[in-house]
Specification:
The chain has a seven-stranded mixed sheet with strand order 5-4-1-6-8-7-9, with helices on both faces. It has a two-stranded antiparallel ribbon with strand order 2-3. It contains five helices and nine strands. The termini are far apart. The chain is globular, with a radius of gyration of 14 Å. By secondary structure, the protein is of the alpha/beta class.
């Protein structure tokens, strides 16, 4: 699969973590650098959504900050549509064990998400308007949007990590 925009969703406030998760370290790597590295082997370009991070292409959440991961995904889909990408491969900044074949595993008809981590997904750009309408109608739940677009849910073994607290770091 080609023509994929990687989107690192990094606009959260990390209240449970207690500090900036993007800069937490795993094996000497900052989480944001580790996720970027894992996405770079499967994406044509990468953006960081929801924050300004030096050294990265960054875009603000749409239509505004504070909408959770859907604001970042909405921004990524709009950016992908404007830049000619066919899909967005989204991932939270707090998922350090992304497999190198994530895009291929999630590929198929429509959207595909990780069963236990719906923020990790492969979204066709054709869903940009659907997500914008969902948000305009008050939708805020990622699972709700995934259900609306009938996203396939794919299980991973071992499961993908979700770093919410310092003790969750591998």
């Amino acid at each position: 699969m080609t023509n994929i925009l990687g989107a690192i969703l990094a606009g959260g406030q990390a209240r449970r973590f207690g500090s900036d998760k993007a800069h937490a370290r795993v094996d000497g790597w900052r989480l944001i650098d580790l996720v970027h590295d894992r996405l770079s082997v499967q994406c044509d370009a990468i953006v960081v959504c929801g924050r300004v991070e030096q050294g990265f292409t960054c875009i603000p959440d749409l239509p505004e900050p504070g909408l959770g991961p859907l604001g970042g995904l909405n921004a990524a889909l709009a950016h992908a549509a404007a830049s000619g990408h066919s899909h967005v491969l989204s991932c939270g900044v707090d998922v350090p064990n992304l497999p190198p074949d994530l895009a291929g595993t999630l590929a198929g008809e429509g959207a595909g998400i990780v069963q236990s981590q719906p923020v990790v997904g492969l979204w066709p750009v054709t869903l940009a308007g659907v997500l914008a309408d969902y948000l305009a109608g008050g939708g805020r739940a990622l699972y709700g949007f995934a259900d609306r677009v009938e996203a396939r849910r794919i299980a991973f073994d071992p499961p993908l990590l979700n770093v919410n607290r310092p003790e969750d770091l591998p």
